[in-house]
Amino acid sequence: MADYDYDLFTIGAGSGGVRASRVAAAHGARVAVAEEYRVGGTCVIRGCVPKKMLVYGAHFAEDLEDAKHFGWDVGERKFDWKKLRDNVLGDVDRLNGLYKQTLENNNVEVFHERATITGPNEITLGSGEKKTAKYILIATGARPHVPTCPGHEYGITSNEAFHLDAIPRRVLIAGAGYIANEFAGIFHQFGAKVTLMNRSDQMLRGYDESVRDRLLQISLMKGIDFRFNANFEKIEKQEDGSLLVFMSNHEPLNVDYVLFATGRVPNVEGLGLEDVGVSVNERGAIQVDGNSRTSVPSIYAVGDVTDRVQLTPVAIREGQAFADTVFGNKPTTLDYSCIPSAVFSHPPIAGVGLTEAQAMQQYGTVKVYTSDFRPMKNVVAHRNERSLYKMICDEPTGKILGIHMIGPDAPEIMQVAAVAVKAGLTKADFDATVAIHPTMSEELVLLK
User: Fold this and answer.
1) Which of 408, 422, 369 is nearest to 63 (CA)?
2) What pLDDT sits at residue 44?
3) Structural contact between residues 280 and 299, judged by C-beta atoms closer than 8 angstroms
4) Which residues contact 432 (CB under 8 A, 6 or more apart)?
5) 138 shares a domain with 31
6) pLDDT class of 2 with cuts at 50, 70, 90
7) How far apart are CA 434 and CA 448, in angstroms?
8) Do 14 and 96 have their domain in common?
9) Based on CB atoms within 10 Å of each CB, which residue in 89, 233, 318, 375 is the most buried?
């Protein structure tokens, strides 16, 4: 490897790229990273971390209302969006510094400029300087997809949502995935009139139908509007600065902002992939094998830029597996089955394993256990919102095939439940476990 400037050159310093670079360096590799924006990637800078902070802030709207039923006189309530926004962005700066420090502490050289692949072992930096490496890792992530319709330039994406000067009075959110539903809950709790539109008649495709139907019911009860089977026709800017949105199958809607949350597109443009022969699929995502290797043996890829699962923890695991395999003499492949996930909506949902429909298709005979209950806190707070826990099992063996839930702290509870599902435990194992009372999580060992 002494024939090259580096053993590893990583393009992109997001979650996957930072983990791969740090671990490779710890294994003794000479590593460099090129990042044209900020270290930390989508999750830390403009994704799950700042969004979760907004979710925390949004929950206080209902918590302060509920507090009155618990004897608290909260006085006049006033929300300062700019204070929350600036505090969140300030913590993003802190995390950006920590990520840079992590690379520096592991002797990873960082180039704060764009990089292009100009050969199987060659990278050209934005400055024109060329570097060589035994291996190249692409970890450039993805970006929000923006629909093409007249006036689409008037819309914003989740990237810009963290920097708004004020909470919009009326906002249309396009999409029905986790980003759309999370921002719908955030903006609604901050006082905006929220309308969520989707081109199909379903939301949160891939989650269990019972759970997503419950979220739809609760969201409607809270006052969030939905427009299904709607496609953009055009967006017109009005004299007062508002936006008039024309869509199929529905009347035009006048709003202050249009937020596009219609999926994410792999960042592959301008990387030089076609020049070196790296294969991509019809979506532009890089195709890789079980070891994250592309069609070019010396070039690998991890994270959202690939044709696998677009989740931060998955990118981190892929980066770790790559570094251990290539530099640590520890061959590692990632198991993509039974990956838990969550939507930080209001209330949040979480799931692991097969949905009821998937289980029936694969196993034929399944047994479904449910608990439909009102959390104790909601009872005292006079809030009618109900939680739903659901366990799907293989009927002959009792093996748990999937667990799905909606309710307060569902993602926190699901993390431990996911370990049980991954381990192949049965309904009998849960039944044999003593409940912690009174908790919401005890419903998992009391399911009927």
Assistant:
1) 408
2) 87
3) no
4) none
5) yes
6) low
7) 15
8) yes
9) 318
Catalytic residue among 112, 145, 382, 437: 437
Whether residues 13 and 113 share a domain: the answer is yes
Strands 257-260 and 156-157: parallel
Examine the domain organization and report whether 140 and 161 are in the same domain: no
Shared-domain flag, residues 13 and 137: yes
Residues sharing a CB contact under 8 Å with residue 224, sequence separation 6 or more, in sequence order: 184, 185, 188, 194, 195, 196
What is the mean pLDDT of the segment spanning 1-7? 84
Range of the domain at 182: 152-262
Spatial CA neighbour of 225 closest among 184, 254, 177: 184
Annotation says 437 is catalytic: yes
| 391 closest CA partner among 336, 321, 318, 443 | 443
CATH of the domain at 89: 3.50.50.60
For the chain, how many structural domains are there in total? 3
| Last residue of one domain, picked from the residues 211, 232, 262 | 262
Query: Using CA atoms, how far apart are residues 257 and 161, in angstroms rounded to an integer?
Result: 10
Query: What secondary structure letter does DSSP report for 360?
Result: H
CATH of the domain at 426: 3.30.390.30
Summarised one tens digit per residue, pLDDT across range 186-210 is: 999 999 999 999 999 999 999 999 9
Half-sphere exposure (CA, 13 Å, Cβ side) for 374?
10
Which phi and psi (to 5°) does residue 103 adopt? -65, -45
Alpha-carbon distance of 47 to 43, in angstroms, equals 4
Same domain, yes or no, for 11 and 139? yes
Q: Is residue 339 part of a domain?
A: no
108 to each of 33, 102, 304, 315, how far by Cα in Å? 7, 9, 22, 19
CA 388 to chain centre: 22
Q: Examine residue 302 and state whether it is found in any structural domain, yes or no.
A: yes
Residues 309-330 pLDDT 10s: 999 999 999 999 999 999 999 9
Do 364 and 422 reside in the same domain of the chain? yes
In a domain, 386, yes or no: yes
Which has the minimum average pLDDT: 44-48, 67-71, 414-418?
44-48
Question: Does any domain span residue 197?
Answer: yes
Q: Which phi-psi region, left, alpha or beta, contains residue 263 (left: φ > 0; alpha: ψ -120 to 50)?
A: left
Looking at this protein, which amino acid is placed at residue 55?
V
Convert the pLDDT of each residue in 133-177 to its tens digit.
999 999 999 999 999 999 999 999 999 999 999 999 999 999 999
Statement: residue 359 has pLDDT above 90: yes
